[in-house]
Amino acid sequence: MTETPQTTFNRVLLKISGEALMGDQGYGLHPPTVERIAREVKTVHDMGVEICMVIGGGNIFRGLAGSAQGMERTTADYMGMLATVMNALAMQSALEEIGVYTRVITAIRMDEVAEPYIRRRAVRHLEKKRVCIFAAGTGNPYFTTDTASALRANEMACEALFMGKNGTDGVYDSDPRTNPDAKRYDKVSYDEVLQKNLKVMDASAIALARDNNLPIIVFPLDEPGGFRGILAGQGTYTRVG
Length: 241
Prior knowledge:
The protein is an alpha/beta fold. It has eight helices and eleven strands. The termini are far apart.
């Protein structure tokens, strides 16, 4: 019988981008990729960790991109929120297929497909070891899913916010794909992220995490076993905070 690794975290939030669900496609959902990420989540769930998730919607529609093409910003942002709900439902399906009870909880009411966001009910789901996927951002235009993840992590009293990134193993001072001399940080402060405009999360999300002492762990999502490994104290990552 394999011994389950120990972790110091009891409750965490995992934030992933919508693009992480595309696989090698240029658009939409790639079911094998969704299933792979679901298995990663299950390995951490099996460690006894309570898990929240926030998934972006950029693989389907990005509000800022729509706004840049002449669409009214608020309408574009609401369309982006609906895209996050589609991703959340896909992840819920993949998780429940492998035996992980999951609830999709939306900031905009759509009772036929998901639960409305009620904080105490969401906390109870976590206590019952259900994965909670928070969708539709904060329910407000002009706020990104990065800000939604920092907000929900604080509301759920998560001990850390895990940012799963594709193609990078942490935070760098410049893009390592274009600059081979880019320096990777093992640890970086919130203020340094803001001052140097390091591409971790948007400024409002970083400020919200800083003001509530919420650690942000940036790690490679495309590395098999990466999420579980980081929680067990192994692997490569950057800690913000």
